[in-house]
Amino acid sequence: MASIDTAVEPSDSAVSEPEIGGVRRRDFINVAAVSFAGVGVVATVFPLVNQMNPSADVLALSSIEVDISAIEPGQAIKTSWRKQPIFIRNLTAAEITAANSVDVSGLRDPQTLAERTVAGKENWLITLGVCTHLGCVPLGAAQGEIKGEFGGYFCPCHGSHYDTAGRTRKGPAPTNLAVPEYSFLSDTVVKIG
Ligand code: FES
Known about the structure:
binds FE2/S2 (inorganic) cluster, disordered N terminus, 2 domains, Rieske Iron-sulfur Protein, three-stranded antiparallel beta sheet, alpha+beta
């Protein structure tokens, strides 16, 4: 038969607690518990703060480097940057001439080809592949796609035409195709972003 422990715990006031460095044991336990709670708060907050910093893959997406060595004059490629399509086009001499022969004062969004390209590399037209009307991806970058009435790009959604400098020439697009921030790392590598 199990015995019943009838021992009675002494009351708090009746016990003289050992001291640790001048702090009673019970106080020490309380301090320790609060300290651990503090560590818990730090450990909880850090991941939240850490989540607010851009992750490595987001940082990687903030700029891209593109090898353009295989893009022949008259060709273009599509790539993507920050989840948006990018057109990189190597203009022919005739396309450059066509772009430069336009009286920009008559354009809806007046810009010269030189203002939309890098000095000395006016043949490289780099734009977002996003129609400035309502955001469709225009045709004209891929082989065989129609380029519109002005030889640049054509947006089939509502019929916007862009010229060989990516400028809006006809249709509802209010502005030229946007030019992202970019620089040439070499003659064959361009960094976008
Ligand atoms: S989205 Fe391109 S013309 Fe409307």
